[in-house]
Each structure stands twice: as C-alpha cells, then as structure tokens.
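wait is this the right file?? whatever heres the structure
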C-alpha cells in the first residue's frame, strides 16, 4: 500500500507552536497512526515515514532518510515483527519449521543499538515500543518469538535511558478483543485502542522532565544518595526469612539506613539463588529542574528491577489492584512507575525504598539489580 492509497502515509502540514512527533514502525504502527493523530489533535504534529519501516536491517539503511532534518520533539519507534519473520535458504518467506529469522538475535541487538545511538543524536525524547504479541497460527512467524526479541531490546534501550511503551503487555491482556484471528494485525477498533496507549506515552514524554538518579550531579541537586542492604530484613539472621513474617521495616520512611553501604552502582548484580535486597534513597525536591519551577508539579519515580521489584514511597506501596507496573511486583523485569508527590514543593523530602527479588521464585538464577532509576517531573 502506498501513500496514494493509505492515508496514514499522507504528509501533514504542521500546526505552528505544537511539538513534532515522529512514529517509526511496521504495519502495526501504520494501523494506529491516524488514531494517534486524532488523539493528539491540537497537542502535537504527528508524522511518520511514508513506508513500512519493517526490520532493523532495513532501518540501518534508511533511518537517516526517515528522520531527515526534522526538529523532532519525540520519536516513538519499534522494530521486531519483521525481524522474526522466517526466511528459507533463498530468502523467501517460509513456515517457521523450514526457515530461520530474517534478523537473528545477535544482529538484532547490534542493529538496534546502532539505531538508538542515531536517534539519540536528534535530541528528541525517545520512546521504545515493545513488539506486540504473535498469536498461534500466524504465517511465517512463531508465537513467542517476539518475546525473545523484546527481551533482547530491553537492556539496550534501558542502557540508553529510553522511555518504554510496553505495548506487548498492554495488548496481551485484551488480545482476543483487538487482534485479528491467527494474524499479527489488529482490527480497526483494536488499532484505535493501541493508539490511546501510544498517545498517552507521547504525552508523558512531552509533559515531563526526567532526572537520572544515577547521575552524581543530579543526586547532588536532590541531596540524595543510594544506600543498599542485602536481605528481606537486613541485619537479621537468615536475611530475615522466617515463617509467616509480618513485615520488613526497611520499607518505612523513618527506618534508619545510615549503617547501610553507600551504593554507587545500582546496576551491579547482587547475590544469587532465592535472595532479596533493598535499595533506598531520600530525595529533597529542588526549586527548579532544567530551569523549570517544580512547584505544584506531579513527581513520579520510575525503575525496572531485575527480576521482581516492589516500590515503597514514604512507607506506602501503590498496589493498584488488578493492574501492573505500579508499586507491587508486576512481573519479570517489568517497568514500574509510582507517584512520589501529587503537588511538589521545593524542600519536600521523600524516601523511596525498592525491594529487589531474584526470580523466578521456583528456580531463581543470576542475581538482582536495578536497571535504571529516575524521577519524572510533569510540566
């Protein structure tokens, strides 16, 4: 389908004064482009290349053309579904049992890292969109292959500090209602639902200033310092693991962690087997962030803990019953976001306590650590 037959490919005229947003992706993003434009009407100018951006291999060749010299405020991007298409020895699409991935994982990692580095040079805020689910019966793809490529992408985009739109998880829970049968594509109604999630992530990027809680200068601005202790109840025998344990005081704001070690690298893997550990930080909100007065703004804490994470802010945990990605453990390496202050005041002090758990609990492997940590100040 070309620009003459697909309205998603039509180039739009910018409305002066609005931020410029670029969508890069395959047919899934083509499907939600018009709906995203509608969601962001009057809030942003939403563009996309007049093509299916397909795989990372194609993107390496054409990314400069797609980005152009546009002064982008936000770039929302994804590659994955075309990378996991199976090809035979002649390079033709093939059934999974008689072919191999168009872009195997080692190349996918390499290409994606190069692409993120290129996109960062634009100065735009970047949003990585996870690849949506592949249902059973899909031709040329195996259900579950997208999970491997999503897992491969996660540490790359996290290392570069890229915001994540977990569209895979968003879609998975409602897949029977929004996706075509035995097909990676979505119904028109399903694409409209995906568009709402995409638009929400774009607005979040446009409306927030991010503070990296691993940057020493930023930590100094917040009068903050990470502290770490191993164990569910640090300092107790057997790491505090006893039958019917009622609570861990390490979650509380008033808990004294002055005897804990100062943690200068939250990404360093710790412990092994079934193990727990706490990362704590007390932040004092400054008067300004990047020249913007913070008074009255909402402040959020975002992180991703390998493997399971539980977040406590000033002694409280946002359980968000029936939802994921908040304070309670939400899944293996799941990004989490919790409210720190609904109306910031300079000089406010908040204590954030993060419980890290090695998993899966039935057979834990490796260790635990924090993949990233940041505060988000809504504009």
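ok assuming it is, sequence goes like this
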């Amino acid at each position: 389908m070309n620009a003459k037959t697909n309205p998603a490919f039509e180039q739009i005229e910018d409305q002066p004064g609005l931020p410029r947003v670029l969508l890069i992706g395959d047919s899934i993003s083509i499907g939600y482009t018009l709906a995203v434009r509608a969601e962001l009407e009057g809030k942003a100018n939403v563009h996309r290349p007049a093509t299916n951006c397909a795989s990372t291999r194609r993107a390496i060749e054409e990314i400069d053309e797609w980005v152009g010299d546009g002064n982008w405020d936000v770039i929302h991007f994804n590659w994955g579904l075309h990378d996991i298409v199976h090809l035979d020895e002649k390079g033709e699409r093939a059934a999974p049992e008689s072919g191999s991935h168009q872009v195997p994982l080692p190349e996918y990692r390499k290409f994606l890292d190069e692409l993120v580095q290129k996109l960062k040079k634009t100065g735009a805020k970047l949003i990585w969109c996870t690849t949506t689910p592949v249902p059973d019966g899909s031709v040329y793809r195996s259900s579950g292959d997208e999970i491997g490529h999503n897992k491969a992408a996660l540490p790359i985009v996290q290392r570069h500090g890229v915001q994540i739109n977990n569209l895979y998880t968003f879609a998975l829970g409602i897949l029977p209602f929004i996706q075509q049968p035995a097909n990676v594509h979505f119904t028109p109604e399903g694409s409209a639902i995906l568009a709402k999630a995409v638009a929400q992530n774009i607005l979040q990027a446009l409306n927030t200033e991010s503070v990296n809680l691993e940057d020493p200068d930023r930590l100094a601005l917040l009068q903050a310092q990470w502290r770490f202790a191993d164990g569910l109840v640090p300092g107790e025998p057997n790491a505090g693991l006893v039958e019917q344990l009622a609570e861990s005081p390490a979650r509380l704001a008033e808990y004294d962690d002055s005897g804990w070690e100062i943690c200068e690298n939250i990404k360093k893997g710790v412990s092994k087997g079934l193990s727990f550990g706490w990362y704590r930080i007390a932040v004092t909100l400054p008067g300004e962030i990047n020249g913007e007065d913070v008074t009255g703004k909402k402040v959020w804490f975002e992180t991703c803990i390998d493997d399971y994470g539980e977040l406590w802010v000033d002694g409280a945990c946002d359980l968000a019953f029936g939802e994921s990605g908040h304070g309670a453990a939400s899944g293996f390496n799941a990004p989490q976001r919790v409210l720190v202050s609904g109306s910031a005041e300079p000089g406010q002090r908040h204590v954030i306590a993060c419980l890290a758990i090695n998993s899966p609990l039935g057979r834990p492997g490796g260790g635990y650590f924090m993949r990233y940590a940041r505060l988000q100040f809504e504009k």
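Residues 137 and 283 are 50 Å apart (CA to CA). so i think its the right one actually
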